[in-house]
Amino acid sequence: MIKFRNVLVVSIALAMVSSTASANLKPTEIPPVFEKLLNSPTLSNPAMIVIDGSTGQTIYEKNIYAQRKPASVMKLLTAAMVLQYLDPLKVFSTEVSITPETNTLFIKGSLDPWIGTTHSVARKMNRASLTHMASNATNAVRSYNAGELVEYTVIYSGLYEQDVKNFKTYWAKRGFNPVFKAEKADQVLTETTVPVVTETSPPVAKILDWMMLWSDNQLADRLARLSSQAAGEPFGILGVERIFKKLLAELQIDSSKLVVKDASGLSKSNKVTAKMIGELLYKLRKDPRFAGLYPVLPVSGVSGTLNERFIDTAPTAVGLVRAKTGSLNGTATLAGYVESSDREYVFVTLADQIPRGYTSLKKARAAIDKILGRIAAPNIPAEISPLPSGI
């Protein structure tokens, strides 16, 4: 029903905008109009840049060198990092086995970033199910111990700290409290074991799709760390920061004002500039190595974190904006691409000085939507009627 509603909204919006496509702002008309709109107290002196997607020319700029909080717009850097360093077809598997003679369970993971704790959800999305692994492990222990959950040791590798906590919580609720011991991957499964269960998550490409569409903070941080490791850097925020800066340097983008505290944008200490993100989006769109970014961005009024936006605030822009949203208490951001008749614009809006609270955030989002609505218009090819015969 939601999908049908969104398709209907897109159809209606495109029908509305087709009759007014010529009314959208021309490049030379954007600066004075945007300057007036952005002076609204609702946005509290934001930073914004608009770039012609074909030429790279800056059409409009405001506070573009100011360090601002990106919120989840930070995930654009993470996505670029993933596309650069991780194989999109790579899958993650987690193997559970048992050695009943020594009362030992083995969990050999591969740092799967998407292990699910709710079995039904994990199955629906083809994700690895921690519940299924934990349940099968306890059944195996019982089968070798006359139905009892006796004292065991769990030797593991390739698991995130949170996954270890989730295993412990699941088992503790069922009266099973094994001792956990972390080992390096090459030290796990060194003795004869009996396989219990193997769980696999979707490939990197699908995980990235979900992370960008729904702005999953945990996935962003985990994918960034995996990318950092693949690039030969430390598996942590230090490695992530190095790769972010390396990526920007390779694209000839100034990273001197970049501050990285996480890869998700959740920290208010992260800092970027509108110019930095605008140039990044422009260059990623031109570079075939990053072709996977554009398709995974939420679409205005249609998908992901933009599925409910623009419909009421700027209906003529429904289906014409692909962008990464961002929000923190006191911050509303949006960065991506907008179709505008015969051209595409790159845009970045960082409003990180708005009043705190959801009401202010909602008003800021609406203001951003309306601004983009002034330039959004579909590219409708002109229909040329055939010449009458004999002419």
TrEMBL record:
One of its GO terms (molecular function) is serine-type carboxypeptidase activity. One of its GO terms (biological process) is proteolysis. The keyword Secreted does not apply. The keyword Secreted does not apply. Pfam families: Peptidase_S11, Peptidase_S13. Keywords: Hydrolase. Residues 40-147 form the Peptidase S11 D-alanyl-D-alanine carboxypeptidase A N-terminal domain. Belongs to the peptidase S13 family. This is Unannotated protein.
